Amino acid sequence: QTTPKSRIDPTQVPRPAAAEDQQIREFKTSSLSTTAVPQASSQYRVVDDGNCSPRFMRLTVNQIPNTKELAKRLAIPIAIVMQPLTQLPLTESVVPYITDLTSGPPRCRRCRAYVNCHVQFVDGGRHWNCNLCGMTNAVEGEYFSTLDHTGQRRDIRDRRELRYGSVDFAASPEYYNRPAMHPAYMFAIDISSEAAQSGLLQASVDAVLSALEGLDDIAQRNHLLQVGLLTFDTHLQFYNLHKECEEDELPGVYVVPDIDDPFVPTPHCMAPLLLHRATIEKVLRALPEMYADAHVGEAAVGAALQVAAMALQPNGGKVVCMFSAPPTMGVGKVGRLDDAAAIGTDRERKILSPDGTFYSGLADLCCSAQVSVDVHAYTSGYCDLVSLGQVCRRSGGQLSYVSAYQHAKHALKLQREVLRGVTRPAAQEAVLRVRCSTGLCVDNYYGSFNKTLEGDIEMPSLDADKTLAVELRLEADIAAEKKEASVQCALLYTAPDGSRRIRVHTLAVTVSNNISSIFRCSDLDSVVNFMAKRAVTEAPDKGLEAVRASLISTTVQILYVYRKFCATNPAPGQLILPESLKLLPLYTLGLLKNKALTTDVAIVRNDQRAYLTQRLLTLSAAETSTCAYPRLFALHSLSPSHGCTSSDGHLSLPPSLSLTAEKLDTNGAYLLDNGEALMFWLGTNVPKSFVQQVFNVGALGAGDAASLELHCYDNDVSRRICSIVEHIRASRPSYQVLDMVQQRDAVGEGNLLTYLVEDRHATVVSYVDFLCHIHSQIQQKLA
After folding, report:
1. Which residues of 425-461 are buried (b: 16+ CB within 10 A; e: fewer)?
2. What span, in angstroms and rounded, lies between the C-alpha atoms of 770 and 548?
3. Burial of 762 from C-beta contacts in 10 A (0-12 / 13-18 / 19+)
4. Whole-angstrom Cα distance, residue 591 to residue 628?
5. What is the dihedral of CA 514, 520, 525, 528, to 10 degrees?
């Protein structure tokens, strides 16, 4: 594809601002339609004074078009990006928990929306008008309050649900369809020879021991918390954790040899953690020695997942499975070859879609039994994660993948991610529903969830790190007298203490007939997150080339509409970008080069693509922006403040550089953060003094970087670089390993260069050429 000769100055093209250097701003949610929403990755403090925080819900446009015609012309997808349980900073108020409504929260009789701070009380306080559908509802006796001269309830200060955009209601008995589940965890550990020899068995044991430590606080609050252990190779082994053993004795082992039709051999495989922790830990610590001489190199992963879910079925809970040997035995074994060359051929859609029915059936079992599944696949063999991963996706679990396990590097990653998986805030037995104002409707959901035949979002678990995107559609013109449009997300769930709650997030934004005003109030982070989730969701059905073309055409259409209807007296040959969406072409290019969506099979294998696809489906708005356009920092030229913490607790990062190889100075050292991993690049002429201070070694020879490890040494440079790395890691939901890359290292540097979005790579053009192509497409539409 040819592009016109560039007349764009590469130094003047839009790039992300160094958000880390910006002042922390305060954002009041009532100003949503008049004040720009803070950039998702920036430092800001939210004050909830009538709309939910953008940390919970972000709209792609914070003014809603008033007619179907205007919505169609706008071209910006109208969508919500929501993270209902995200963890708020300590500087922000927690979501209020309302427990004094014995009959449950008041709801609209027509649309079933929950009472919120945007409803209007009328008739002296005896009725309230729903802000979503307009229905007039009677106020029940216990909820009645008279109104003051301004029309406000006199008890408004005591009614937090009428003051804040986000609240938790205690659910009344009708919301319980079964006794509340208690926390339960089944840990499934691979004991094959591959796991033992690679060190993954020891790493798995250490990870579970760490998880038990993390679960101790929950167990103290809920004595019913149970834990089970399952080990597997070509057989399945359960352990009688109820048995009290002598010091040199281990409890009985129940072996299940049938991996084609597995079963739970004993009701004693789950045990209360508080009562039997000593026995559980004794078994765990014995595993590495017990299976040190294992000769079985295969693992029945599918059978292990199935029987673990069956063990939890009476109550529900979480399965955490760690394996090294690929699933080549028993039910759920890999049923097809790793067709690396399928992309771009007639076989592409098949390799991007699940194979067989076992894992979809297992996902059905998990969802009906309220069992979520975390899988940590640390294997170099082909696992068909497209098929296996659907269990994690639909059950609200997590998929983690490492293709080349190195014990020194990845053991800590496994430990941190298993611990995070069992201790992060999570909603169990979750049911989610989004409701909209009259004229708006929900068109589709994108993300990691289970959708019922009735269209509800139900899943065993929804944790704090999960983000969903909801596409909205204007199905009718909005009435002229309506000045605001509302969206409400309601999440019914079981909290860790066993209580049933309803978390309600409500947004109300201005309805507008001004397309320029709508563009000014659009949110780039939400647009990019929605486009990414939609693209990877549609890829199996439409094919990668089709969704890549759709990303480009959507970008072109948005910018074309802005130029045609909003720009004032533009020069004929000038590329006009709206201020709010000026980085859209750059992030679109980043998505095209992302390994989840690339057609370059030389840089990504099928399992890695499946893992990255599932990761994109769960990422927050801020994480997706980093995934599309990673951050590059120069570490050899830190200013005195970089890597230091200020009085307000904010650590100063160096400014991020543009993603081009021209920025990599042979005398420098750089850190690349792509959201999933960190890469530490060392130039061939990096000063010896820098290497000595940071790595405590002298001269660096060819190939030596791979053996380097980052530790904190007793000097200022080392301390500040370690602080920067740990600060970045602490902001991510998954643990980022640090890969050392030396200049001219064919493999390591080749991988790093694929993240330099602004450079030409394989068949995808550079950033400047992409802008020229976008401009050319807009000019053709204008002709």
Report:
1. ebbbbbbbbbbbbbbbebeebbbbbbeeeeeebbbbb
2. 13
3. exposed
4. 5
5. 50
Rounded average pLDDT over 378-388: 95
Q: What are phi and psi of 433, to 5 degrees?
A: -140, 135
Q: What are the backbone dihedrals phi and psi of residue 262, each rounded to the nearest 5 degrees, phi first?
A: -70, 160
Which residues pair with residue 114 across a beta bridge? 107
What tokens were used for 491? 């999440």
Distance CA 254, CA 446 (A): 42
pLDDT of 20 above 60: no
Residue 242: both structure tokens together: 């109820």
With contact defined as beta carbons under 8 Å apart, do 222 and 428 qualify? no
Here the tokens at position 105 are: 């929260």
Residues 6+ apart with CB under 8 A from 168: 95, 96, 97, 98, 501, 502, 503, 504
The phi and psi torsions of 174 (rounded to 5 degrees) equal: -70, -15
Say what the pLDDT of residue 18 is.
66
Strand, coil or helix: 761: strand
pLDDT tens digits, one per residue of 92-101: 999 999 999 9
Residue 757 φ/ψ, nearest 5 degrees: -60, -30
Q: Cβ distance 156 to 162 under 8 Å?
A: yes
Separation between Cα atoms, residue 140 and residue 512, nearest integer Å: 35
Three-class DSSP category at 326: coil
Q: Could you give the CA distance from residue 316 to residue 619 in angstroms, rounded to a whole number? A: 26
Q: Which amino acid is at 782?
A: L
- The answer to whether the beta carbons of residues 344 and 599 sit under 8 Å apart is yes
* CB-based contact 373:396 (threshold 8 Å): no
For residues 456 and 454, give the distance between their C-alpha atoms in angstroms, rounded to a whole number. Answer: 6
- 440 phi and psi angles, rounded to 5 deg: -100, 150
Residue 705 DSSP label:
G
Give the number of other CB atoms < 10 A from CB of residue 749: 17
Beta strands at 63-65 and 79-82: parallel, antiparallel or unpaired: unpaired
The torsion of the CA quartet 723, 626, 428, 177, rounded to 10 degrees, works out to 160
Q: What DSSP character marks residue 280?
A: H
Residues in the chain: 783
CB atoms closer than 10 angstroms to residue 735: 19
Residue given tokens 């294992």 in the structure block: 294
Alpha-carbon distance 739 to 402, whole Å? 13
- Alpha carbon 513 to its chain centroid, in Å, reads 34
Does 4 score more than 50 pLDDT? no
Q: Give 132-173 as a DSSP string.
A: TT--EEEPPGGG---B-TTS-BTTGGG-GGGT-SEEEEEPPG
What is the SS3 assignment for 511? strand
Mean pLDDT of all residues in the chain?
93
DSSP code of 669? E
Q: Which two tokens stand for residue 189?
A: 């550990």
> Considering only CA atoms, which of 122, 55, 121 is closest in space to residue 82?
55
CA–CA dist 472, 120 (Å, integer): 25
Q: Each residue of 312-346: pLDDT tens digit?
A: 999 999 999 999 999 999 999 999 999 989 998 98
| pTM beyond 0.90 | yes
Burial of 144 (0-12, 13-18, 19+ CB in 10 A): middle
CA atoms of 521 and 579, how far apart (whole Å): 10
Contact 66, 478 (CB under 8 A): yes
Instruction: Supply the DSSP symbol for 87.
Output: P
Residues 506, 565: Cα–Cα separation, whole Å: 31
Please give the Cα distance from 358 to 5 (Å, whole number).
Answer: 53
User: Which residues make Cβ contacts (< 8 Å) with residue 563, sequence separation at least 6?
Assistant: 570, 576, 778, 782
Question: Which residues are registered as beta bridge partners of 27?
Answer: 46
Stronger pLDDT, 411 or 252, i.e. the higher one: 411
